[in-house]
Amino acid sequence: MKRMPAITVSETQLAAWTGAFFWPLVRILALLGTAPAFSHQAIPVRAKVAFGVAIALVIAPTVQSPPLGNALDGVFFEILVRNILVGATLGFAVRALFSGVEFAGEVIGLEIGMSFGGFYNPEMPETDTPVTNLVSLLVLLLFLTMNGHLMLLAALRRSFDVFPVAGGGSHQIAFDVLAGLGKQVFSIALSVSLPILATMFLINLILGIMARVSPQLNLFAVGFPITLSGGLLLLAVFLPYLEEPIRRALEQALAIWPQG
Asked: So where are the chain's domains?
């Protein structure tokens, strides 16, 4: 009976195989830990890791990765930090979009009198107004409807061409665009909340004139239901117009990666 030849795997081959999977996984997990939708605390950590492993299995054969070296080596640490920063940068760029819309919801909620009731936000460990939670949920659904998650994964794959795993590449991150995302937070918040804030200002102005003309009028008993009802009505009217500014902001957030 002929014996089958033994299969031998050298240490160099093992390091190459593990490196080809490990380095893309580091960047992918950094993205999943910071990007909206993927980083939501309602998603179990095991599910996030399993999803990252599934993406890495698809991307790894198309990416050139160095072998997995000694964890105490300076080169290992440099490549590790580089890929974590690249993945986290992409996630934070899209996070700025959600922060702007959530900030707008916070301002609207305070203006129409929703600050009296707050709910715990599972995505951000803090208490938000009901309007903030509503707008945050709507922008998340709109993000998924616009295939924003697919755009984000496409940008992730493009980042391996623009910024190779082991370093090098002729491109640089558009830090001016990345820095402008801080301004974009307030720009999105203003564009979303300005129509409602302007209308609420007129309502409060009319209520102030009424209180001046008729001092015996209980302004708190009359004005609070008016501002609350008017604010919710205005919010329902202007919500359909959120798609265009959100789409522009998403495209600008993903523009930090040059086309490879």
From this structure: 11-254
